[in-house]
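User: Before I run my own analysis I want an independent prediction to cross-check against. Here's the chain; please return only the structure tokens and, at the end, one sentence I can use as a sanity check.
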Amino acid sequence: MDILKSKYSWSVAPLIWLVGMAVLFLIWAIATPEWIQTHFDDDGNSTIEVVTVGLLFFQIGFFWLVPPMRASRSRPFWLTNFSLISFFAICRQLDWHRLLIAPSNLPGATRGTPFKMRFLTNPVNPLSDRLIVAACFVVVILVCGGTLLYFLRRLWTGLFKLHPVSWSIGFMGGTLILIQIADRLPAVFRKNFGIRLSDSMYALMTALEEGQELLLPLFVIVAVLQAHFIYNNDRPDDDPLARFREL
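Assistant: Structure tokens:
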């Protein structure tokens, strides 16, 4: 915990990512593809996914127990906002959003998840379903995109000033990109190049996707602690984190 209060607090997120990646590659090296599939995926019932969801629920309560910002009239709004974004992540992880749309048996209707742009552009899909999907897209984009835009300048500036929270959120964003790459890579190779990954390489992609998803709430929890120590603790002016209070 002391490192979170020190001038090296910014390095916690990189260390979490490096350790996490080392563990994932070690597991891939010693485990069978079948074991990885069972414990990392298993159609949403794996150990890793259950732990990830548990951390996301914990994250919501943690926002309110350890507020990451100073007391103000706007703090309840932002805590609610962060909680809502976390709830979106839980819905995605548990596929709760798919319960909004009943599968369509119409000829030519989109198969698979309805929460893709091709579902909206396919006129065969029921209009009511497309409106629901469009509304979900709008809400998620407004909440998540609006939050990012509001804090973007401070996050970007903080990266160069080694602001601990900026580094934790930055690593969360970078990890999200890597998760998408691991998720899409097998399909890209199959559809664009006619290459099917071996069972071992497919297991690696599964481990990297699901394993890094577990890191996301850890980055958030660390960022909350870092922000709490900076903005909500009465510490002397020569404290290593004091220079971040005005950012």
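Sanity check: The first helix runs from residue 12 to 30.
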